[in-house]
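Need residues for this backbone.
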């Protein structure tokens, strides 16, 4: 699925899952889009092809009906001119930079270009550290101010919109910003690398332009360093440029004659050549390579957009196309459902995932038997979601309830998400009219689930199936996202 197709699919989803009051896309429209897409791609096509074709057909149908939808569908995903303007601006700033200093003396130890070189070296170190530590991060680091500003100018940043809130258009923009974040990061990275390269080229250009009409002397001064130490420092910094250009770095005795203010210094031309070559080696070439890599990565993502298809909406569309149903596996712990509650739960699952959805209800695992789970507790292959069921009336204990969660997680087939469902029915019946006790007990359970990185839902299983269905749908979405991020 390419970027345009993914944008269409995400846009259709925002309208298709809108509240009834916002609905401009009916169930009949959705059924038509699915049926028409299945006819076009034929049997056996993968989910990407089916969803992409369905999104295209839906965009054509809705675009004729809603002008705002047509504008959203045809709008550019990224403003390419933003990158060009920022790169040109960076070059201009580099030209305006005072690369020599306020006087006509080039201080070899306080050359303004040294700061530019050091800054870029620190950036490369940060990129290296990020690349090494990224696989071990549990949470993605936030964007810096500069990256956020470029993303906003490029039209790819829409923040501050809570999930599921706002009009379909605002929800689409927020969701698109989230799913396109990897592509946006590559595009922003490319702009920043090209901008840094352009700034360095502008500084080099300004250096030589000023050198054509002004005379500069080179020297150095220091309170703490002697000539031999300065020679070592300059050899380390300018050594690669010296090898490339063939310009030698003077020895310590010669550098002593350049010490300011007792000596007048010497013509700065060789030193300007060395610093310019160093800037090319440490800024221009590395930034060009990084920009090229970011560009290749962005192009790959444009053609193979990583749209997450693990949530309940996409899973439901894929099941409608393949004729399969959702399969939920429920394992109660120290808690037995009444026949009426079990029937209510099955109705909720059908309401959430369609008539082909199935529920496998495992026999309850008794308190104290969490270390050796029976074979019936293990979810089978093809399970959409495994759910650990608890009663809110119980007091959560990590050595028991936590051990049960750990043991159940160890039985999951690869890629099967695990969530927790906490039935509040008996607790509400006992402590009706005491909301503070309900909130305190929820917080206690939540702390246990956070420790085991499991998404919970607190529901009254004796309530209407629609409310339970919404909770199960949310559980699948959150759990699948967490499983995909691992």
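Answer:
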């Amino acid at each position: 699925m390419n970027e345009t197709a993914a944008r269409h699919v995400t846009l259709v989803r925002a309208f298709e899952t809108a509240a009834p009051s916002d609905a401009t896309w009916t169930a009949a429209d959705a059924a038509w889009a699915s049926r028409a897409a299945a006819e076009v791609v034929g049997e056996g096509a993968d989910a990407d092809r089916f969803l992409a074709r369905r999104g295209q057909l839906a965009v054509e149908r809705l675009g004729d009906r809603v002008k705002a939808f047509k504008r959203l569908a045809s709008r550019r995903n990224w403003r390419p001119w933003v990158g060009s303007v920022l790169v040109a601006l960076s070059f201009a700033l580099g030209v305006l930079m005072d690369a020599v200093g306020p006087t006509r003396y080039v201080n070899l130890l306080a050359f303004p270009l040294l700061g530019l070189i050091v800054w870029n070296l620190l950036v490369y170190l940060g990129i290296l550290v990020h690349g090494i530590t990224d696989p071990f991060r549990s949470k993605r680091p936030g964007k810096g101010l500069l990256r956020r500003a470029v993303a906003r100018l490029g039209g790819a940043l829409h923040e501050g919109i809570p999930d599921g809130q706002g009009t379909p258009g605002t929800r689409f923009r927020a969701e698109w910003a989230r799913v396109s974040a990897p592509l946006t990061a590559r595009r922003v990275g490319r702009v920043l690398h090209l901008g840094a390269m352009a700034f360095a080229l502008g500084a080099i250009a300004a250096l030589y332009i000023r050198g054509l009409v002004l005379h500069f002397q080179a020297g150095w001064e220091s309170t703490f360093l002697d000539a031999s130490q300065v020679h070592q420092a300059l050899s380390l910094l300018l050594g690669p440029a010296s090898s490339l250009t063939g310009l030698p770095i003077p020895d310590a005795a010669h550098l002593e004659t350049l010490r300011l203010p007792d000596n007048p210094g010497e013509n700065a031309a060789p030193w300007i050549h060395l610093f310019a070559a160093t800037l090319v080696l440490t800024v221009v070439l590395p930034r060009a390579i990084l920009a090229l890599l970011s560009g290749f990565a962005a192009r790959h993502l444009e053609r193979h957009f990583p749209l997450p298809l693990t949530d309940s909406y996409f899973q439901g569309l894929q099941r409608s196309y393949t004729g399969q149903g959702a399969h939920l596996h429920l394992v109660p712990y120290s808690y037995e459902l009444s026949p009426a509650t079990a029937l209510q739960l099955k109705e909720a699952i059908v309401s959430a995932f369609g008539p082909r959805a199935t529920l496998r209800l495992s026999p309850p695992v008794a308190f104290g038997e969490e270390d050796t789970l029976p074979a019936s507790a293990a979810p089978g292959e093809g399970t959409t979601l495994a759910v650990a069921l608890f009663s809110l009336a119980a007091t959560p204990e990590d050595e028991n309830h936590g051990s049960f969660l750990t043991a159940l997680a160890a039985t999951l087939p690869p890629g099967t998400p695990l969530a927790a469902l906490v039935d509040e029915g008996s607790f509400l019946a006992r402590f009706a009219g005491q909301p503070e006790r309900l909130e305190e007990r929820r917080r206690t359970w939540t702390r246990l689930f956070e420790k085991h990185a499991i998404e919970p839902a607190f529901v009254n299983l004796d309530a209407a199936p629609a409310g339970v269905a919404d909770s199960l749908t949310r559980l699948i979405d959150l759990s699948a996202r967490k499983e995909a991020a691992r």
